[in-house]
Amino acid sequence: DLQGVVNGGAVSSVVEHFLDTECNTSRNAHSAVTFSKVFTNLSNFPPKKPSNGGRFRRVDRCIQRNLRSGELWFVGRQGGRVVWHRLRTPDLLVARVSVAMLGSNINGNSEVFLVVDGKEKLIPQVPPVTPDQPLPRVTQVLVRQDDPPPQPHIPLPTPQPASPPSPPTLDTFLDRWRRGKAGLKPATEAKLDEYLKMVRRYVDTKRPVSDYKSQDIRNYLANARADKNEQGSRRLKGQTINEAIWRSLNDAFHLAMEERFIVSNPMVSVKREKAEPINRNQHKWEDAERLLEDVKSRAPESYLELKFMLMLGVGQAEAKDIMGGSVKWNDSQITFVRKKTGKQYTVPVYPWATDFIRTEIEPRLKQNEPVFDWRNPRKALETSCLKLGLPNLEIRSLRRTLIIHLIQKGVELRMIAKWQGHKDATLILQRYGKFIDADHEKHEIDKLKASATQK
Fold first, then answer.
1. Rounded CA gap, 39 and 303, in Å?
2. Cα(219)–Cα(270) distance, rounded to whole angstroms?
3. φ, ψ of residue 62 in degrees (nearest 5)
């Protein structure tokens, strides 16, 4: 339609004249090529503001491109509010022309001209088009006569939205949770490492953290609960499952929820295992001595280890690591290193342990060498318990036997706590404050009677 207007000339710009009906003069608007200012009194078109979820990018002043469809939009401020207008074209130059011509028909006192070879020529009237098509005059204004014939409009392919990156795996959050515990006591860090090994043994941690449901966690805990050893006993007690698996998973999912990879923690509706009460019973002092004498006849090395733990009230880890040079006879003390905390503490050579230390332990003392050729004495202790008809208790019960023995001897609780490597007597009271031996109770009553008689 513009062939007659162009007439072989070269289009250099588009010019719009505003007619001043009062003064009968005209003035030029900005050309499309040098467009730098946008009309703001655009009251005739609706806002049509789309949802901006990161789908638009600014390409020119007041012009933004939709990253999905490729179309350009006009964005300008009108009356203190931002107005969006769809330009229906992906071409930036066409968009600039459209923006330059916006508002040109405000009151009918304006006309748009083509500048051809330096002369202005009026653009003929073009019939209205459907809203889904770009404006014909805007498309044709940019066609030069010496250009090849325009190709049929091929719409740009709609870009597919990029798939969001998959969230990190549960294994990643377990590792990050573990790194957040760095700097704790060595024994505590070693325990946390064991917990992670246990979690990965029963839980598939390679899945994205957002894939886990509460029932998945229940199934994993059921696998840990059903795991049994060769004798048919459960490998993990309820307390171990709660501390090692349930708690580790809960902390990892909580970290993922903090970073908004998941909206809720699946552990919230997963119940903990029923924890079996810890057996804190112990043998009487006389029964423990009988057991050790029976062990001595069958396993001499196990006898030395067990009696050392009973006489001094230390655990297996401390007895296993005892080295020559730890005994200080001048002070009647033995120095140990608490395995859980890595701190040193001293235990006095109790009167009942002096002969045993001098006759059976001192010949083994060599500087910086282990005192015992360590063998696990558990089996020897179980055999003696069965033979003598005594309850089968764990090896650590020997330590509790000594603590109760010291309490019954009237030793101050703060001293007992110090000799056990504790910072105060709170734990001693919590663990052993409820224990009352029947013989000890009778002995205390006899003391009260004797005291009353003397008065």
1. 100
2. 10
3. 65, 15
Question: For residues 310 and 322, what is the distance between their CA atoms, to the nearest angstrom?
Answer: 15
177/252 Cα distance (integer angstroms):
6
Looking at per-residue confidence, does 275 or 345 come out higher?
345
Residue 317 CB neighbours (<10 A): 13
Is residue 282 within 8 Å of 397, Cβ to Cβ? yes
**In angstroms, how far is the first alpha carbon of the chain from the final one?**
133
Which residue matches tokens 């040079």? 325
Per-residue pLDDT reduced to its tens digit, 167-220: 899 999 999 999 999 888 888 899 999 999 999 999 999 999 999 999 999 999
Order of strands across the sheet that contains 56-60: 56-60, 63-66, 72-78, 81-86
How many residues in the chain?
A: 455
| pTM strictly above 0.70 | no
Determine the residue type at 282. Q
Helix axes 170-179, 186-202, angle to 10 degrees: 170
Q: Token digits for 429?
A: 């009271």
The average pLDDT across 28-39 equals 41
Gap between the Cα atoms of 323 and 296, Å rounded: 23
Residue in the block written with tokens 């070879």: 117
User: Which tens digits make up the pLDDT trace of 401-441?
Assistant: 898 888 888 888 889 888 888 888 887 877 776 666 667 77
